[in-house]
Amino acid sequence: YLSGQRAALIRRKSQVRLLLCPSPMNRAEAFQSLSKTKKGEVAEQIVETELALRGYTVLQPRENERYDLAIEDGGKLLRIQVKTGYERERSPGRIVFDTSNNNTQRSEVNISKNYTSEQIDYFAVYSEITDEVYIVPVEETGTSEMTIRYDNPQKTDPNINWAEEYVIENILAR
User: What is the rounded CA–CA span in Å between residue 85 and residue 97?
Assistant: First the structure.
């Protein structure tokens, strides 16, 4: 047993060496170091993995669709748009995610397109803060962003979207 380190065997040209490596980062720590584009790609992989671990068949569209993946649930195909949740410095305890996508066209004009229930059924949100995946029905989201709270607020509010309400088991079991 090696405290604070892990051992790895390396075989190189029939030579075996023991290599001491620092403890691996956890998933959330590793995620923080990625570029925005890479975060999106990794978030999709995390969501796919979490759904597959729960027994869902995960499908990816062949064409450029408004959804990133789909799952089969009870014979029904559910379309999912994956988003990365983030926390604003001025509002701790809340995960925010965009419910529209922004594309900059050749004219350098930023065009925002909202997602609708005709295009997707759910948002799947990976949060590096909680290292959780949340499933949010598109009908419950706003037109530009949504906030879900994982920590108690300073003031009570009956309109809080609590994170535990959106964990995979609570939404897909409906």
Answer: 5
Over residues 126-147, the pLDDT tens digits come to 999 999 999 999 999 988 899 9
- Predicted model pTM: 0.79
DSSP 23: P
> Looking at residue 113, what is its pLDDT?
85
> Sign of torsion, CA 41 43 48 53?
positive
Residues ≥6 apart with Cβ < 8 Å to 113:
100, 101, 103
Task: Tell me the pLDDT tens digit for each residue of 17-46.
Answer: 444 445 556 777 888 888 888 999 999 999
Neighbours of 58 (CB within 10 A): 15
Alpha-carbon distance 166 to 47, whole Å? 14
* Torsional sign, CA 99, 88, 70, 42: positive
What is the rounded CA–CA span in Å between residue 111 and residue 122? 22
